[in-house]
From TrEMBL:
Any one GO molecular-function label of the UniProt entry: ATP binding
Pathway(s) this gene product operates in, as recorded in its UniProt entry: Cell wall biogenesis; peptidoglycan biosynthesis
Catalytic class of the enzyme: ligase
Protein name per UniProt: Lipid II isoglutaminyl synthase (glutamine-hydrolyzing) subunit MurT
UniProt keyword terms in alphabetical order: ATP-binding, Cell shape, Cell wall biogenesis/degradation, Ligase, Metal-binding, Nucleotide-binding, Peptidoglycan synthesis
Organism taxonomic ancestry: Bacteria, Bacillati, Actinomycetota, Actinomycetes, Micrococcales
Biological processes, Gene Ontology terms: cell wall organization; peptidoglycan biosynthetic process; regulation of cell shape
Reactions the enzyme catalyzes: beta-D-GlcNAc-(1->4)-Mur2Ac(oyl-L-Ala-gamma-D-O-P-Glu-L-Lys-D-Ala-D-Ala)-di-trans,octa-cis-undecaprenyl diphosphate + NH4(+) = beta-D-GlcNAc-(1->4)-Mur2Ac(oyl-L-Ala-D-isoglutaminyl-L-Lys-D-Ala-D-Ala)-di-trans,octa-cis-undecaprenyl diphosphate + phosphate + H(+); beta-D-GlcNAc-(1->4)-Mur2Ac(oyl-L-Ala-gamma-D-Glu-L-Lys-D-Ala-D-Ala)-di-trans,octa-cis-undecaprenyl diphosphate + ATP = beta-D-GlcNAc-(1->4)-Mur2Ac(oyl-L-Ala-gamma-D-O-P-Glu-L-Lys-D-Ala-D-Ala)-di-trans,octa-cis-undecaprenyl diphosphate + ADP; beta-D-GlcNAc-(1->4)-Mur2Ac(oyl-L-Ala-gamma-D-Glu-L-Lys-D-Ala-D-Ala)-di-trans,octa-cis-undecaprenyl diphosphate + L-glutamine + ATP + H2O = beta-D-GlcNAc-(1->4)-Mur2Ac(oyl-L-Ala-D-isoglutaminyl-L-Lys-D-Ala-D-Ala)-di-trans,octa-cis-undecaprenyl diphosphate + L-glutamate + ADP + phosphate + H(+)
EC number(s) recorded for this UniProt protein: 6.3.5.13
UniProt cross-references to HAMAP family, sorted A to Z: Lipid_II_synth_MurT (MF_02214)
Function: The lipid II isoglutaminyl synthase complex catalyzes the formation of alpha-D-isoglutamine in the cell wall lipid II stem peptide. The MurT subunit catalyzes the ATP-dependent amidation of D-glutamate residue of lipid II, converting it to an isoglutamine residue.
Keyword Cell wall biogenesis/degradation found: yes
Protein's organism: Cryobacterium tagatosivorans
Pfam family, one: Mur_ligase_M
Amino acid sequence: MHYAPAILIGRIVRTLARMRKPGGGSAVPGLVVNKIAPGFLARTLNGFPEGLVIVTGSSGKSTITKMLVAVLRAHGKTVFTNPSTANISQGLTSALLEQASLTGHIDGDIAVLEMDEGHGAYIAGSLTPRVVTLTNVMVDQIDRFHDSEMVQAMLAKIAARATEAVVLNADDQYLQDLAAGVRSPVRVERFGVTTEVLEANPRGLGYAQTATARLPRGEGVLVTRVAGREAEISLPEGDYTVGLPARGTHYAVDAATALGAARQALGTAFRAGLAVAAISSIPAVFGRGEVVSVRGRQVEFVLVQNPASFQLNLDSLEPGTDQILVAIGSDVRDPSYFWPVTTSGLGRVLIASGSKAHEIALQLAYDDVAVDRIESDLGRALDDFLALPEPAVGLKTIIFSADGMRRTRAHLGLATNSEELS
């Protein structure tokens, strides 16, 4: 009962925050509880009978976490997990408050948590995860992380806490270097892509593609082919066809990551066919290749959070898609952040919108993309875009940054955070 007062206070704060701002304020109770009961987070996360699995890295965390949770549940495990919007320390604590008893206990066999790399490194010293999964190293938030070596150091600090296994990207030299520091008896499970898959993606996978050797077939988890929303993945247990939640090689790599993490978390209980079926059945993760029905129209939402995801998602669009709206919002503080992205493949964008409408329109123009209209008022842009007749090729497609996504969903009356979808 040591944490009962803090839990009660946290729940009261949560209720007040939701009254003040429906659908928001989810981090506030976590901030309060972390302040008055700093041991609550670590004690609860370390208390699951089958341990804790951490998923962290620069990108792919939300999709991999959702895939891994689906696999574990398919194997009969009761899993506690956090929404993708709650991957920093106060968000993690708020997520725990949703299910914890007054004693701080949560019913569940195992916890799978997506963690921000910075906050994960901050609390790593108090955690004892069984498995740590590392996705890649990129500087995707230049106002927080100044260089790749800083991100690598954060991930190394988290990986050092693993008690059984570290699962990492064999195609990322930063992570390959990090693997050299993993000491027995902690195992290293690698995932990656074949040379053929990499050559089919000439702009790379968004990772630090400097590894000097590809992962051999039969060692770890290897993506051998990608075609639209389907991939071939080689496991030590055999070769399997995996359905993906959205188009793109990055989603195939996410699936390989989740399979590698599941193999380590489940051990001898892992069943490859069951795992593949679970991954193949999940829908798109919030805003990431998600197809929704709005005002009688089918619309695909494409979230871009950094130059690599922007490039990968553009390259994965159906060729010739003829109705595209791009909405870049205030979360992109410096528009030059996206200038490394080659947008020429879009050909034509009907509307550039959001608070950075003129800036993204300028980038598109430099890439010889025709922009029919610049409309800073996102609500007006969305209304006009949806009022257009059905496209001749592909779906109506909205490409947005995180701020553009939230404003788009709010204007269209859709869920505005991933917690509302769970």
